[in-house]
What does this fold into?
Amino acid sequence: MHGLKKVVAAAVAAALVPAFAAAQEAPPLKIGVVSFLSGAAAGPFGVPARNAAEIMVEMLNAAKVPAPYATKGFGGAALQMQLVDEAGPATTQVTEFRNLVQRDNVDVVIGYISSGNCLAIAPVAEELKKLTVFFDCGTPRIFEEKSYKYVFRTASTATMDSVGAALYVMDMKKGKINSIAGVNQNYAWGQDSWSDFEASMKKLAPGVKVGTSQMPKLFAGQYNAEISTILAAKADVVHSSFWDGDLEAFILQAGPRGLFKRSTVVLTTGETAMYKLAEHIPDGVVIGARGPYGPYAPDSELNRWFSKTFEDRYNVPPNYAAYQMAQAILGTKAAWEKAQAANGGKRPDTDQVIAAFERLTFDSPGGRIEMAIGAGHQAITETVYGVSKKVKGKMTVANVKRYPASAVNPPDGVKAADWIAGGFKK
Amino acid sequence: MSAGRAPFTLALILVVILAVGPFAPQWTLFLLTIALAKGLVVLGLMLLLRCGLVSFGQALYYCIGAYAAGMLGRYFGMSDLFTLMLAGMAASALAALVLGFLLARYRGIFFGLLSLALSMILYGLLVKTEALGSSDGFHVLPSTLFGVRPADAWVRYAVLAVAAVVAVIVALLVHRYLDTPLGKLAPAIKDNEIRVEYMGASARYAIHVKYVIAAALAGLGGALAATTVGHVDPEMAYWTTSGEFIFITILAGTGSVIAPFLGALIFGIIQTVAFGISPNTWQMVLGTSLLVVIVFLPHGLWSLFRRRKAA
Amino acid sequence: MSVEQLLAVLIDGIIYSAWLFVAAVGLTLIYGVMKIVNVTHGSFYALGAYAAASITGALLARGMPPSLSYAVLLGSALLVTLVVAPLIERGILRFMYAKDEVVILLITYALFLILEDAIKLIWGVSPYFIAQPYGLLGSFDVLDLTYPYYNLILVGVAILCGGGLAWMLNHTRTGKLLVAVIHDTEVSRAMGINVERMYLFTFTFGSMLAAVGGAFTAPTVSVVPGLGVEVIVLSFAVVVIGGLGSLPGAALGAVIVGLVRSATIHYLPQVELFVIYLVMAMVLAFRPRGLFSLAEARKI
It folds into this structure.
């Protein structure tokens, strides 16, 4: 039994040690990176995002990133990354966030894919006064319900995806849409995505009928019954914000049943599956990437460098989660260095970085990002949609349409739902 | 440790927490408060386990308590820690009083699985309720004490201190309850229910009472967790949450009212260490440590302490 | 409520029931014989899916005729269970049988956590696809709706599993010994039945059924981490509704859940999320031990 007691003691000690170890290391900057490393969201989002973070940290430390990010690390200080799994309930995530900040003394936390986790973390970041950058989560509630000083989000909200999808199908069908149907996962992301899409369509095509709105349980995996109801609805457009395994299972099950032939299907996160399931996605499926990422990223030196570096290392092109992580790190770097310049070249404090971050405009592999709404804490970007098209057996996108940021995001201070209901006033 | 010493030990632990708290790093205060919240839930599970019942759905009451506390803040602006804890406790106890008429008839695996079904129904209902934030949940107001919000540097300590005082009082009450005739019925019910009935006692009544107490404790823990974490979401009712509580119950052992809190703390430490040292394979670390405890300490972590006393 | 829609409800329900039954039936067998609520059931489902997807995929890439893929799916599920299940039963579980039902449940939970990460370490987090077998057989039309024939294979697998299991229990020596163990372990031991061997056999066989379920689901889904988690609670629900340890119960449970879920999706999609648990709670409220429960002697 004494052996076990030692193990327990060692475990307690191990939990305490980083607190002391951290105090001795000063010069490098510590960034906490939180992303799904286990569970269903790990494959499509979590791990590509972690991979992007690893590349960015390594390349920034080696000062190998193209302009305007060629300086080493953040303002010359090397970066040290501490990785945390985003899995587990909010209690666990809040505990780990506090550990990152108060035990491991990280200088900034970048992370969070789940909207629920973002909502739970934001007030804690505020309480602990720690600069925290959300890189992926979609809910517009974060800056609509409260305002935060220490919290930033460098990706657009999910509203943009739904509004963009509605605009695109209207363009594609030249306004002739009589009925829509939806299949979305039964949790906040799916519910919000559908209600934004439905509301937008009702504004854009008054009198449009809703055939059916299916809300299967998250990770249900078996969709035969849902597909039957959607087939029976014979809607002009079918909207789905499915992601990951659910999206892939849906594509595999819906294809042989002829859904893609019967309706125009919009997959707002289709980009994460388009290469993997190239042979199962017919031409003409509307593919979204939650912004100008992946195949929709603009042609710039930064983008060419990023996708090449990523692909060379991991043998797959970076997906939108990887882009968003790179974007969050570069956005933080831009704010950090702007603050450092304003501080006479000395390391800025958190308040100075925040002042520089608010309303910042910066370049990322996904193009120009403006921290324009949420009182300067929430990014808006353009969004892009296209349809799948196989060229010589390779999956590509065609009929690509770009929608400027101001057309698909609400203005500062207006709630997303009100903005849609009010007819997208700028 | 003999059962009679528990009150002294509890008092000693309380004094140590109150005395050392101001000098401890902030993150340990949080870890400890969460451990107390979970410990309260586990204390209730221990009561049930003593009569052979395992609830795979205790998260139901944890979640009810948490949402009761959160909704008081969301709709009525209340943030007083004591009010919220009382409300969480009352809401859960009330729900358990009603559901207890059904559940007190069940034994063994069926008791567990019916509890599981009920908690999953609550989970489903909450996910469908967009007014309460659906699966994302909602923010819980920062706790205040008697209308005052403690200064940022002290708020963790204040909440921990309140939690520790409450937990110790509750643990003492449970400790006394175990000494009452109703409390002593538990092992008898576990061994042979029919003999209990021959004795003239009602096993169903005894189980109903314990069920309500366990739910009240879970509600209290849920409310405390909600104000400490600052957020509630439906995952608090999901079966994995119940699983974690059972995990801690078995880890701790049923030797003493102190064991649940110790178990919850050790669990918290194992989990955070696992997250820290192997972010990619922490589940493996967690699973292995559970196996090790079950194999080498069949009566839970608590037996470590008991054996030392015997030696 | 048109005829077409009712037909669709029926077909969708049967397909889902077949899937549920194959996924859950091993759980009821293991519970019946060993009185273990086996959480690793989900791990074996996932292992079966991963083994099937990776082995079949690799062979197809090396030019195997696609028609052979059904046999390979089955073969890989059997292979992976024959390696892992005896290892777990002999290596760990057999030392635990004296413990409480709950403690054993937790042991399987711990093993499930370990296997989750082990699967991740072996196969990584990227999804595996093996969709060829799904589309290979073509599809048939029912009125306005198209269904791939593969769904019929799934129904066939379910009938084979259920029928085969029933035949084995009633007509083979091993099966009859198992029935004896199900009814009373101690008496069986006294009668000279090698209960340990029965346990090893049951655990392997029950897990194999889970793996087969996973393997034949693999062509219709993307095989990703966390695949097994969802199956655990769903299988519990099915098996509990039917009565733990009862084979006809598991079949009936699967059919009830399958049809109720399908009807819900067609007529009342809002409640799909918890309808299974609602059914489970209602069944337990009126039949506290499930629909086909074995009578249990009261110990005095």
Remarks:
- Chain A touches chain B through 45 residues (CB under 8 Å).
- Chain A has a mean pLDDT of 91.
